[in-house]
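Many introductory courses stop at the sequence. We go one step further.
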Amino acid sequence: MTDERDQQPAPDETNPEAERDSPELAEKARKLFSGPIAFLKSAPSLQFLPTADVGEVAFAGRSNVGKSSLLNALTNRNGLARTSNTPGRTQELNFFDVGAPPIFRLVDMPGYGFAKAPKDIARKWRHLVNDYLRGRQALKRALVLVDSRHGLKDVDRDMLKMLDEAAVSYRLVLTKSDKIKPTELAEIERLTAEEARKHPAAHPEIIATSSETGLGIDRLRRAVLEAIG
């Protein structure tokens, strides 16, 4: 992410804590995510993408990472993103308008790393996601969700590499953080942040979340707004 440099450094560059300490950003996030949010459309291929007239924040993650549950918690709507008992079922880009008229969009990317997915499905996923990441100027940031119980896996690292190569700014978000002990979570955060520093397009700060307890949800909302700018 390229920010204009001046005498007052951007929060991302010198003080990752600044975004969550900003009362103005917190109030703006509260209002936006309590206002109109609606499903716009699904895009099985690039020709079905909506007009790139507002900024987008995309959510990526393994097919059983809890992405739909986190999106529902983020938007405070139980059924906005569909959850499925069959990981890997969704193979489309799902777009959600935030605000009416839309101020920005959330994009639910199809889950990756489902072991039983046929090769043609995996190939279709890679082409769709790679083309979207490389060609979507409206995409402001990707949020890569990582199960806090397991940490980064090779399939996650493949996603980070894809984002690095596409020059898309991204941030790592831990899910299901209520499922492990606080000491274990702190260690996973440390290890994840350590790995993030190895990637040129990664944001340095990790956000730990839980869709069940609400841990980190307000912080994640502010991070979305900070990405949109």
